[in-house]
Design goal:
The structure holds 4 protein chains of 4 kinds.
Chain B (H helix, E strand, L loop, with lengths): L1 H12 L2 H32 L28 E4 L5 E8 L2 E3 L2 E5 L3 E7 L5 E4 L6 E4 L5 E6 L4 E6 L12 E7 L19
Parallel strand pairs in B: 2-5, 4-10
Antiparallel strand pairs in B: 1-2, 2-3, 5-8, 6-7, 9-10
Chain C lengths: L4 H28 L10 H36 L6 H23 L13 E2 L2 H31 L7 H32 L5 E2 L1 H12 L1 H21 L7 H14 L16 H35 L7 H4 L6 H23 L5 H4 L3 H31 L6 H27 L14 H4 L2 H29 L30 H20 L9 E2 L1 E2 L7
Parallel strand pairs in C: 1-4
Antiparallel strand pairs in C: 2-3
Helix pairs in contact in C: 1-2, 1-3, 1-13, 1-16, 2-3, 2-4, 2-5, 3-4, 4-5, 5-6, 5-7, 5-8, 7-9, 7-13, 8-9, 8-17, 11-13, 11-14, 13-14, 13-16, 14-16
Chain D lengths: L2 H31 L12 H9 L25 H8 L3 H7 L4 H4 L18 H13 L5 H8 L3 H13 L23 H7 L11 H4 L16 H13 L9 H7 L3 H13 L6
The chains are: A mainly alpha, B alpha+beta, C mainly alpha, D mainly alpha.
Chain lengths: 66, 192, 544, 277
């Protein structure tokens, strides 16, 4: 395992995770974590839609107050 | 030497530019989502009267019964000279006075409460009328009830050993049935 | 084996040993407020139990756990012994003594004021002194974190501080600043009254001072869970951290924006205008940003680990992740709990919408789901990660640990989702007993019973947790217990942007922002008059 | 400037500008846009809007000018001064004054169900307030108002100290050992009323103020009190003939009780609960 710069994680080498072997499965990572984006976008999208539903169909329905 | 080697291995995984680009794009996307929610709040806040209460008034809690707006004869529903409706409650340890208030439906009603002892909660359940009643301050909430009926009004802030039994009722009657009152007349709906 | 392991172990044991009774109290309370029969169904006992459950779960347990975790991080990331270990033991002593001192009067029913105090309700002076001691003890930890942080930085100029150390120092700074709010309230307002030196108290000022602490304390609890997300999970999953920079930005955002958002706890209070309430609502939206950033960065890190283990296709990497690893499973479950938990938070912070659910069971369900669920499940995972290193004995069984995490996950969901629904139906908060003969309350009977079932699952999960801890403490010692390994970023770099390696500038920004957002709201009380309320005690203490 | 400081400087500038933008958005909408439609609807001027946002109403309180004639329930207010005076009595001096009270109020010359309240052991604040109310006429009783008018508030405090030092009614310190059946599961409706109250009708739990296990300033402990006296007082509160309860708390609660409940509550409290005399 070539010497790798690791100070950002811990100052003693044996405290740092081992390097990763490059394998074909990594090819798909070339242009960024597609799967993670899909999960993140869909979950945040759900949150936003849920919030809008709550706001317009639960909150505003319960009468004006100020 | 370490840096040169490191880039050669690490960069194989994902270039730093791609990481920075996705993170930056994600940041912008999230900012937009949050901005959208804020915009909805502002538009409905300006369009209708949908915002938290905003009225800082103080009153001496120890002498409420001696002088001021919350003497016992002034509690309950009142019609103000300008025709608006004001309902005054006292939230005290372990009962609301009056225990039941009558309010006309779909008219703007002003609730005014204070407490002589500890902090209480004023919540007409299943509606947005929900505020704290803090001793020394007057809670002033404007509200409009569209659906006539009896609403339970529990104290929703811990106020001592009797907190669980502290509840009043708000009876929303259709506009027609709400008889007009003389300026100095106060009504409550009393025991059912 | 870790340096100063006894120190960390003492903190973690103390934390979990007070977590256990508080969990049983929580279970009793759940049954008490449900239609089920329960022994000792006495409202006074409920309010005393609620004060104990709240005080332990909000002050004693998380503070001790985070202090223990902080010492373990300092030693293992900086690779040298802890400076000022004797002071650390002194801080620990203060916290334990303070915790006991606070719990005794609660036990005697002399201080049922709940953990958020509620002046002018005043309890026994010993309760407040106890809570003050816990806070003082935690300040020892704050000082030690910052001393070790800056000492290492001066010994290694130009080098980036390890991410975990950077984050725990931000957490310590955040706690150091925010605890001042509640401390001012206790020292200047509540203690004089409970000692009988003064007889009146300004409830509005007290609530506002407490709100300075009330939200930032939540991020004080949250940051250690995020430290596990960023620095422990990627290595446990056999992958790498997607972006070290994003991690540092997240912790800086938490530090700067956690305190000036406190007034979203006072949206429905009469002592503030809607102007500053809106400013705090906007700032709360900004403080939601780091969580959204973290979700993406951590799921990306999970994807990297999944790919490395051969996961193909858009989402094929999920299947190949080592879900048998407690740390990886915990992060997955925590993210799943963070979604509904965060959703509840979005509703609570949305200015006017807070009126719909303020002080209803929705709020209680929200913080049980996001703190009790998403954060405490990470505390369990961190404990599983630290135990072998602190005891030089292997973790007895990862399967039992994973079972415990699953039970905690399902228990939390089953307990809190019906609770959210009851909150929307108008169930008020902190009621000792509900009169289920009232049709309006009877509608919520089935929801409350479902919550009890969730509570039972959680209780069983706690017992499994202690089973794993005990077995691991007395397992056959092993020499070759590997030290804690911290995740390596995808592109580790030898340098880090100077602003992301220190806190001086962020402290200035934090103070300026807090002054702007809290200056007027706190200042106004000194210009208002005749709002002081006579102190009220539930046990005739104040009239001594 | 070396590149090192350059990126720091630009970093700081970026952070400050973003923060300034957020604050501008917050204060702009919070103080200038949103309050326009709050409270008194209709477009207000910028300064009105800021006042509204700070909660300092510009409108004069036009809505509480006309009020029905105020009826003062009691001239006692639990301010610091009143409490200092009420708690500052001297029992020995009180004993000498109490000579003419024993005729009616002291245990030996007193038959059960006499309708005369027992005073031995009564809370100081309660004695002080009732005497003051008799003096000011907010509580009506010709014999008692004569007695009260013949004494000074300082002597009220001494009497209160003397009676509080006597054995008789239990001291209500607000603590009690937790026990079962104090919730709505309790079969006995009266015990339910005492410990749990009846939120359906808005009735608070008696024990949360009068004990056992609850304390409220000015609320007397009721255990071992005279049953007839308790029932009469509840009826008086319900009908309003007695109206010296500050802020109408007892009149509100008594008004929601039925006469049968009043009688049952009075007898349970007089018997001293689980029979402990």
């Amino acid at each position: 395992m070539e010497e790798e710069h690791h100070y950002g994680s811990a100052s003693e080498p044996e405290r740092v995770a081992p390097a990763i072997r490059r394998s074909t499965a990594l090819e798909t990572l070339k242009n960024g974590p597609r799967g993670a984006l899909v999960i993140a976008v869909s979950s945040v999208g759900l949150l936003l839609i849920g919030w809008l539903l709550f706001y317009f169909f639960l909150f505003l329905r319960r009468g004006t107050v100020g | 030497m370490a840096e040169q080697l490191n880039n050669q291995i690490a960069s194989g995984l994902i270039q730093e530019e791609i990481i920075e680009r996705t993170e930056r794009r994600w940041l912008y996307a999230m900012a937009i989502v949050l901005g959208l929610m804020l915009a909805v709040i502002v538009f409905t806040g300006v369009g209708q009267m949908m915002s938290p209460l905003s009225d800082v008034e103080t009153i001496n809690p120890a002498t409420l019964h001696l002088k001021g707006e919350f003497v016992e004869s002034n509690l309950g529903t009142a019609v103000e000279p300008d025709g608006s409706i004001t309902v005054r409650f006292l939230a005290e340890q372990y009962t609301f006075v009056p225990p039941c208030a009558v309010v006309p439906a779909s008219t703007l009603v002003r609730f005014r409460l204070t407490s002589p002892d500890v902090t209480h909660g004023f919540f007409v359940s299943t509606t947005n009328v929900n505020a704290m009643v803090v001793p020394g301050y007057i809670t002033n909430v404007m509200a409009r009830f569209n659906r006539p009926g009896d609403y339970v009004m529990p104290c929703d802030e811990y106020c001592g050993f009797g907190h669980h039994a502290m509840a009043a009722r708000v009876r929303v009657v259709p506009q027609g049935q709400f008889k007009n009152l003389q300026p100095e007349q106060r009504i409550t709906c009393g025991a059912q | 084996m870790e340096r100063s392991r006894l120190l960390s172990l003492a903190h973690l044991w103390a934390a979990f040993l007070c977590f256990l009774p508080a969990a049983f109290l929580g279970m009793w309370q759940l049954m008490m407020r449900s239609p089920l029969r329960v022994p000792l169904d006495d409202p006074n006992a409920y309010y005393a139990s609620l004060t104990a459950h709240g005080s332990i779960m909000a002050y004693v347990f998380p503070t001790l756990f985070i202090m223990g975790f902080g010492y373990a991080i300092t030693v293992s990331t900086l690779g040298r012994s802890l400076r000022g270990e004797s002071w650390a033991w002194m801080g620990f002593f203060f916290c334990v003594v303070g915790g006991v001192m606070a719990l005794v009067p609660i036990g005697f029913g002399r201080s049922s004021v709940l953990y958020t105090f509620y002046p002018p309700l005043v309890g026994s002076v010993w309760y407040y002194l106890g809570v003050a001691l816990v806070i003082i003890g935690s300040y020892f930890w704050v000082a030690l974190m910052l001393i070790n942080f800056s000492a290492w930085k001066s010994d290694n100029p130009g080098k980036p501080v390890p991410l975990a150390m950077f984050a725990i120092s931000a957490c310590a700074l955040l706690w150091g600043w925010t605890a001042l709010g509640a401390t001012c309230e206790v020292v200047f307002q509540i203690l004089p009254v409970s000692l009988g030196l003064r007889h009146t108290i300004d409830a509005g000022l007290a609530r506002t001072l407490f709100s300075v602490t009330l939200h930032a304390i939540v991020y004080f609890w949250l940051i250690p869970a995020y430290i596990a997300f960023y620095t422990l999970m990627p290595q446990a999953a056999g992958g790498r951290l997607y972006s070290d920079t994003m991690g540092r930005i997240t912790f800086v955002l938490f530090l700067v924006f956690s305190i000036p958002v406190g007034m979203h706890h006072l949206f429905m209070d009469p002592e503030h205008g809607s102007g500053f309430k809106f400013v705090h609502s906007v700032l709360t939206f900004i403080v939601a940003l780091p969580t959204l950033l973290t979700v993406f960065t951590i799921v990306a890190s999970l994807e990297i680990a999944g790919r490395v283990r051969g996961g193909k296709g858009l989402l094929g990497w999920i299947r190949t992740l080592p879900w048998g690893e407690p740390m990886v499973l915990a992060v997955g479950l925590s993210l799943l709990l963070l979604a509904p938990g965060g959703f509840g938070g979005l509703i609570n912070m949305s200015y006017g919408m807070n009126a719909m659910i303020h002080n209803t069971s929705w709020v209680t369900a929200h913080f049980h789901l996001i703190f009790g669920g998403a954060v405490v499940i990470m505390y369990f995972a961190i404990a599983y990660e630290l135990w072998p290193r602190l005891n030089a004995r292997p973790l007895v069984s990862k399967r039992a640990a994973c079972l415990q995490l699953w039970l905690w996950f399902w228990g939390m969901l089953i307990m809190t989702l019906p609770w959210h629904a009851a909150g929307l139906m108008g169930q008020p908060r902190r009621y000792a007993i509900f009169d289920y003969s009232d049709p309006a309350v009877a509608k919520m009977a089935s929801l409350d019973i479902t919550s009890v079932v969730g509570g039972l699952i959680l209780l069983f999960s706690v017992l499994v947790f202690f089973y794993v801890l005990f077995r691991s403490t007395f397992a056959r010692p092993e020499e070759s217990v590997s030290p804690i390994r911290y995740a390596l970023a995808v592109n580790p770099s030898a340098t880090v942007h100077p602003l992301l390696n220190g806190f001086v500038f962020w402290n200035v920004l934090l103070l300026a922002l807090t002054l702007i957002s809290y200056g007027y709201p706190i200042g106004q009380f000194f210009f208002l008059h005749n709002q002081d309320a006579p102190a009220r005690s539930l046990s005739q203490e104040v009239l001594r | 400037m070396s590149p090192e400081n350059g990126s720091v400087h630009s970093g700081r500038l970026l952070a400050v500008t973003i923060l300034a933008g957020i604050l501008a958005l917050g204060f702009g909408f919070g103080f200038l846009v949103l309050p326009r439609n709050q409270g008194t609807p209709g477009l207000a001027s910028a300064s009105d809007s800021i006042y509204q946002a700070l909660g300092l109403h510009t409108h004069n309180n036009s809505f509480n000018t006309v009020q029905p004639p105020a009826k003062i329930p009691s001239y006692v207010a639990w301010t610091e001064a009143t409490m200092q005076q009420a708690m500052g009595g001297d029992a020995k001096r009180g004993e000498s004054i109490a000579g003419n009270c024993t005729g009616c109020h002291v245990e030996p010359a007193h038959t059960a169900e006499s309708g005369m309240p027992r005073l031995a052991g009564l809370d100081r604040l309660v004695t002080y307030k009732q005497l003051d109310d008799y003096r000011s006429g907010t509580r009506l009783s010709d014999t008692m108002s004569a007695v009260a008018q013949s004494l000074t508030p300082k002597q009220y405090a001494d009497l209160a100290a003397y009676f509080a030092s006597q054995k008789g009614l239990p001291e209500n310190r607000g603590e009690r050992a937790p026990g079962s059946h104090r919730s709505y599961h309790n079969a006995d409706p009266v015990q339910r009323l005492i410990y749990a109250g009846d939120p359906k009708r808005g009735i608070a739990a008696c024990a949360s103020c009068h004990g056992p296990g609850g304390y409220l300033i000015g609320a007397p402990a009721l255990i071992n009190q005279d049953a007839l006296y308790l029932e009469q007082q509840l009826l008086a509160f319900a009908q309003g003939t007695r109206s010296n309860d500050i802020n109408m708390s007892m009149r509100t609660i008594a008004g929601l009780l039925t006469p049968a409940e009043m009688k049952a509550l009075a007898s349970i409290y007089a018997k001293g609960f689980d029979g402990s005399k």
